Structure formats: C-alpha cells, structure tokens
C-alpha cells in the first residue's frame, strides 16, 4: 500500500524562505522601528509624485507626448516612412546587405520600437535575411529614438543650446542608419548578401485622415498612461528606496563620472538610461541654455536611441524572439552592441562635432 504524500510536507522553495525573511523583517520593523516602513513609503511617494503628476499629468510634457504621436502618425499616413525606405534600401544594396535590414530602423524613426520588431521580423525572414543580418537590423534599430516625443522635445532643447539643428540631426539619426550596418557587416556580423526584395513593404496605412488623428491621439494617451508613466514610477520608486537606505549617492556619482567623460549631461543622461528619454529631453530643455553645449548635444544623441535599458534588456529581446529567427539572447546581444555604438556616437558628436555647429 503506497504512502500518501502529505501536501504539508512539501519542501520549502527559495522564494518562500525569502518571503519568511520579509515577514519577519516587517514584524521586527513594526516592533522596534515603527516609523521605518512609513518613512520608506513616504520617501518613495515624494520621489515619484513630482515627476508623474507635475511633469506628465499636469505639465506640458504629457501633452507633448500625445501631440508628438499625432504628428508622427500623420507623417506616416502621408508617406514619410515609405519615402525613407525608398531612400535607404538602395544604399543597403550598394553595401551588399539585405535591404530588409533597414526596415525596423526606418519604421522606428517615427518612434515605435515594439511595432518595428513585430513588423520587420517577419519581413526579414521572408526576405531570407541571415541571422547576422537580423542582428544588424536590431543593432541599427537602436540608433533611432523609441518615442517620437523624445525627438520633438529634444529639438526644442537642441535649439536652446544655440547649436545648428540640421547637422546634429543628420549626423545623429540618419548617418548611423548607413554607418552602423556597414561597420557591423565588416566586423562582427559578416554573413551578409545582396538580395532583391520580391515585394517592397508598404508602411503607409490606408486609414482615413481624420480617423488617423483620433486613433493617434488615443495611441499617444495609451503610451503616456500605460508605458511611460508606469516605467517612470517604477524607476523613481526604486531610486527613492535607494536614497532612503543611503546607497543611491555612490551609484549616482559613478553615473555622473561616466556620462561626463562621454560628453553627456549626467542628470539627463541617467534619465535616458534608467527611466525615460522623453523625460530627459524635457529636463534638458530647462537647462540647455545654461550648460556646456557639448553636454547638451551628447545628451540629445543618447536620448535619440532605443533607451531606456528596460527596452534593451526586456522589450526588444521578447519582441524579436517572437517574430524573427533570433533567440532572446541573440537579440539582446545585438541590442547591447547597438547601445554601445550609440554611446560612442554621443561622445563623438558631443565632443568633436559640437564646437563646429555652435
């Protein structure tokens, strides 16, 4: 007669031990330091509230996000994305690279990094792009901003520095779409070849113009409320926690040293990396006229990318693993390479180019 297993005798898992530790810690805190938990919660709220409410919900930045999505989708409806692809596809062919490689980057110019992966992944597979070419596509896509709002607000900040906007935008957004695929095809990802696309993809939707306006306004509101604000709240909540326990200052100092060395304004650079490039450009707009133009330009270039890091390590790998031949690890590695190249671009344009355009 077999023994029945007692469900109560199941072995403890690691997370259950962690849970018990948290329960005991909370009880000890309530017993010996009754104000500790309340103080921690209060510190987090005070860190998150002014960003979420004052800047996004009741400030100009939230409206700018919605308006920029409307502008971006109207440009897309008027053929802007298709025109860009017509310009860059022959260049890829001339570089002996599958023209489909440029699709996610071109689509991402107007700022939708997740849709870029969902749309471009299947097209790349149908175009028989090699894994190397798909990795090039991911790394190149990271060179474009993941929100058109970042670009629009960034232009205002860039103008405040006194720098010539056209050469900075040309060198930071359009030139990398050619330079990055070429460099990667000659170094890391060499398995590339020229192919003829059987059918050119078309990105201009057939939606009525008035419907495009209202749909894009809804999309902009969803972007603000369901993507940007939650991400910002999480990051600033963690920063509030780290500040409360006294470990944030050394981390902030390390970021400041690194970003300053790369000719990137530290405070806005950290916002781009950790929270929201859109918020970073809104903050840069306030200080652009009073800081070294090289730092402001470097911060603009960094923000005009696939950041924050949650996108690089989370959204991009998940999207591309589901819609291409790449695994999550391969997509993440390509995205990291693209991000490292973006840091180099920010340094080169910020430090060497800025003196010539101010």
TrEMBL record:
<protein>
    <recommendedName>
        <fullName>Nucleoside transporter/FeoB GTPase Gate domain-containing protein</fullName>
    </recommendedName>
</protein>
<keyword id="KW-1133">Transmembrane helix</keyword>
<keyword id="KW-0472">Membrane</keyword>
<feature type="transmembrane region" description="Helical">
    <location>
        <begin position="12"/>
        <end position="36"/>
    </location>
</feature>
<feature type="transmembrane region" description="Helical">
    <location>
        <begin position="332"/>
        <end position="353"/>
    </location>
</feature>
<feature type="transmembrane region" description="Helical">
    <location>
        <begin position="48"/>
        <end position="71"/>
    </location>
</feature>
<keyword id="KW-0812">Transmembrane</keyword>
<feature type="transmembrane region" description="Helical">
    <location>
        <begin position="295"/>
        <end position="320"/>
    </location>
</feature>
<feature type="transmembrane region" description="Helical">
    <location>
        <begin position="151"/>
        <end position="184"/>
    </location>
</feature>
<feature type="transmembrane region" description="Helical">
    <location>
        <begin position="223"/>
        <end position="242"/>
    </location>
</feature>
<feature type="transmembrane region" description="Helical">
    <location>
        <begin position="254"/>
        <end position="275"/>
    </location>
</feature>
């Amino acid at each position: 007669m077999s023994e029945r297993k007692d469900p109560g005798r199941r072995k403890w898992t690691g997370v259950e031990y962690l849970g018990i530790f948290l329960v005991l810690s909370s009880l000890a805190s309530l017993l010996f330091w009754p104000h500790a938990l309340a103080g921690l919660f209060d510190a987090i709220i005070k860190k998150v509230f002014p960003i979420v409410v004052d800047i996004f919900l009741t400030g100009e930045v939230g409206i700018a996000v919605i308006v920029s999505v409307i502008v971006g989708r109207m440009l897309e409806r008027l053929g802007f994305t298709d025109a860009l692809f017509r310009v860059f596809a022959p260049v890829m062919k001339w570089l002996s690279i599958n023209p489909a490689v440029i699709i996610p980057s071109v689509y991402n110019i107007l700022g939708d990094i997740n849709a870029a992966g969902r749309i471009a992944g299947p097209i790349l597979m149908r175009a028989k792009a090699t894994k190397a070419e798909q990795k090039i596509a991911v790394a190149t896509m990271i060179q474009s901003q993941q929100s058109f709002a970042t670009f629009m607000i960034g232009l205002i900040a860039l103008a405040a520095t006194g720098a010539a906007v056209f050469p900075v935008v040309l060198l930071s957004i359009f030139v990398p779409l050619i330079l990055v695929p070429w460099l990667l095809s000659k170094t890391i990802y060499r398995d590339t070849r020229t192919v003829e696309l059987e059918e050119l993809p078309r990105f201009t939707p057939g939606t009525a113009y008035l419907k495009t306006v209202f749909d894009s306004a809804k999309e902009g509101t969803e972007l603000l409320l369901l993507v940007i604000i939650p991400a910002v709240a999480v990051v600033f909540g963690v920063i509030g926690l780290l500040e409360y326990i006294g470990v944030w200052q050394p981390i902030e100092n390390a970021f400041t040293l690194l970003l300053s060395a790369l000719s990137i304004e530290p405070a806005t650079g950290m916002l781009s990396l950790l929270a929201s490039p859109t918020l970073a450009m809104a903050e840069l707009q306030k200080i652009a006229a009073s800081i070294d133009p090289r730092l402001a330009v470097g911060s603009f270039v960094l923000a005009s990318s696939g950041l924050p890091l949650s996108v690089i390590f989370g959204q991009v790998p998940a999207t591309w693993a589901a819609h291409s031949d790449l695994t999550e690890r391969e997509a993440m590695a390509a995205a990291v390479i693209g991000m490292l190249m973006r840091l180099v671009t920010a340094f080169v344009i910020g430090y060497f180019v800025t003196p010539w355009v101010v």
